[in-house]
């Protein structure tokens, strides 16, 4: 898991301060959220998809693998709207399904937007190390170390939980199936897996917390930091890069509209 | 603890100990009983030590490193106090070993003395005096739950951050600490996950050292390590412990014995039985050490005699073990029986790669096979492969059956072999001890009713179809399950939740629920790992008993003594290959010695 | 030793490191189990129109379970954020919005527990918290997914399913799980110690 999430080269975005970068990406999220025109969302999706491949610092196959999840995100964001959305110009209808021109383009717009969100999110994740992010949040945004270290520790505990999931599956296979109906089994599955995994993980968390406290982890007192988290010129570069990408998308939407439709909401 | 105020409390007489003052108490050395009315107070580091007159412990002018006097402690929900007016004083620079049976409260006491209870973990306690060290470093048992950061340097830096050490001083200190414990990493920015368990424990020691502790508390730091890891962690401890107070809880005492100044021996009920030099304790309390399951150096000799290969069994202390005869007729007349398992050109795969290859090997009834080899050599994969839980190639016969195809392999394996995982909790599927065993029997009954059919759910260990056994069958199942529990010394716990058993009991329960259906082959993944001697021997006795009744046991183990004393064959796996499978010369059938039943 | 009692209690009023870490791993485990379950249930073919809404409540399950286990203010919110954090860290295609969703949903659940002054920890209250979180997700969906532009019947249908699912999963299912953990002796050390346990020391 850890090996997989290691960039092969470092870009400007990697060098930017994670806290600043988080703020930038949240801002970017808000801008994307306030985009209600399909041309804008289309170009945002395109531009950030390009940027994702160019600036994530990961080999193309890895980026593509991670980005394949966007297909599902696109479908889940757009399909329901396309099939069941409100609209006056009906193209096709069958039973409860009514595809209208408005709902169709609104659905596409939502799909593009979800790709833009996805690209932005992935770009942030791939260019930011968790450790770096939490050190920055502690130093720049005064996040309580109690939360920062708990969240960092959880990443270490993740592979253990996955390993235990595998062991539990093998163990259940060895123990055999017991009796019960198939649907009942499906409903019992969460319990069957959750109970032993939770029991293990909770005990592990308690022990880890005790070990941390023994090492004088006291959230109240002054502490120093192993990694500094300076704001540098890379942050300005990241700002320019992201602002430039967004501006380019929005300008392209003005200059070269593909769909040329207005606000996607019926009641803006 | 900011708003702690010392308030005078009602006076209380320290009661007499719950057990009767019999001949034993005369042998008690150095145990300070505090009698008479006392003002209750706690002393913690930094708190001003109120001066009191007429306190019996004042006779020593020197301030102790840690002390508990009149300690009472009770776990929430527990029926009884764990400690009732316990007193113990640790002098500065002393190296003290706390010994006692599992569950007697040694580890809890260590946590009290280390300041974890009640500061971090809330457990109701009170004491007349409680002094914890000014600075304590603690190493715990489990190598996987002591770190919060992904990399070695980050983990050590975490300690320094807590102490507000300036950034530029961190690296030199980190490197020095690693050097002290003998972890020579060219670059400390190494994932902790890539270290061996033994190295992780030394890392835990290094991070304790960064606190510059005056007292080092070690809570079974080597219990979950293989022999090599055990050796290196104790070497490291010895290197760093000079001029420090050291308090150790440990079941395995070989590596500790020759350098501790003092041994404190606890009873089952959490009271102190004896307190003295190692030599004195070992001279006088050998029987207790044995009864308590301490791994003292001659524990194996005392349990299985001095000889090798079963010959010495007669030398085993007869008063402790019942000898019974249960020899298989087939084996009395020599070795003509069919192998329970035969492997030819057998390979286990993981992710398309061969992780364990076996050219030729066989398991006969009455075999006890020690499967040895370094960590990661492929031992566990071999067992998983035998159960059909990993893809495999080549020939593998279970008795006369040579199943082909994933599903058939799995079903045959499940019918012929029982597998006990290292952590028994993962194998429990019910919420009651009795039901665990009954579950196996019900599954067996059901399998007999409807053989076959496969589904996605079955692969995940889920039922495929409802069947209702008759009430007569149910009663029979309950009876058999009960009988089985009694045989495994779990009869008193039938209604308990399996998770509430001790580790030894959990292991026995998972063996019980595996063998209740009479599967001839038992696969065990390190069954004695992390156990005290009493439970380990109880487990091995159980294996002996099964073996004598025609079962075969194949166990992964790092314990050389098992291979040398009990095994009929030793299989050695190295680098993903079974490199040798040798008979030890110990006969397959032997007289059975019934288990004395682990911790009661 | 009432000195120690008061010292311990004052320290434990807020969230301790142990509380936070346990909350985080509860989210983690439920997340892992959820992904396993989602893959199996889709294989098992239990899908009809919008049926995934029925299991949407799994997203709130961590916050109610964490509260049922620890019973302190704040854990529901922390659990939600932790779940989102892990999803994002391991490369989810949904990105930053998971974080913002988790905040509104966690706050909504938190509000319900607060309305009962953090004293009631039963299945019904947990279920209500689930419904509140579902309502918060609707609010977010209005901005994020224009759901008010759905045909009205669908809007009602979709969010009714979500609310029902949340009530059952975050409420009764998690309550059952918490009870099981209680039986297994796991929860004991998570909760503040009862006063009478201290009194028993004098026995």
Quick rundown:
Helices cover 31% and strands 19% of the residues of chain B. With 600 residues, chain B is α/β, with parallel strands linked by helices. Among the domains of chain B are: 142-212, no CATH class; 340-449 and 473-594, 3-Layer(aba) Sandwich (Rossmann fold), CATH 3.40.50.
Main sheet specs of chain C: none
Portion of residues within helices of chain A: 55-70%
Overall structural class of chain C, as computed from helix and strand content, comes to mainly alpha
Cα radius of gyration of chain A in angstroms: 23 Å
Describe the structure.
The complex is a heterotrimer of chains A (268), B (600) and C (203). Chain A has 268 residues and is mainly alpha-helical. Chain A contains 10 helices and 2 strands, in the order H-H-H-H-H-E-E-H-H-H-H-H. Chain A has a two-stranded antiparallel ribbon. In chain A, a hairpin with a 2-residue loop joins strand 1 (90-94) and strand 2 (97-100). Among the domains of chain B are: 142-212, no CATH class; 340-449 and 473-594, P-loop containing nucleotide triphosphate hydrolases (Rossmann fold), CATH 3.40.50.300. Chain B has a 6-stranded mixed sheet, sandwiched between helices. Helices cover 31% and strands 19% of the residues of chain B. Chain B is an alpha/beta fold and 600 residues long. Chain C is mainly α and 203 residues long. Chain C has one domain (15-187). In chain C, 71% of the residues lie in helices and 0% in strands. Chain C contains 8 helices and no strands. The longest helix of chain C is centred in the last third of the chain and has 32 residues, at 152-183. In chain C, 57% of the residues are buried. Classes of the chains: A mainly alpha (268), B alpha/beta (600), C mainly alpha (203). Chains in contact: A-B, A-C, B-C. Chains A and C meet through helix 2, helix 5, helix 6, helix 8 and helix 9 of A and helix 2, helix 4, helix 5, helix 6 and helix 7 of C. Chain A: Keywords: Membrane, Transmembrane, Transmembrane helix. Chain A: The chain crosses the membrane at residues 12-34, 40-58, 65-84, 115-137, 236-259. Chain A: InterPro entries: ABC/ECF_trnsptr_transmembrane (IPR003339). Chain A: It is a multi-pass membrane protein. Chain A: Pfam families: CbiQ. Chain C: It comes from Saccharibacillus alkalitolerans.
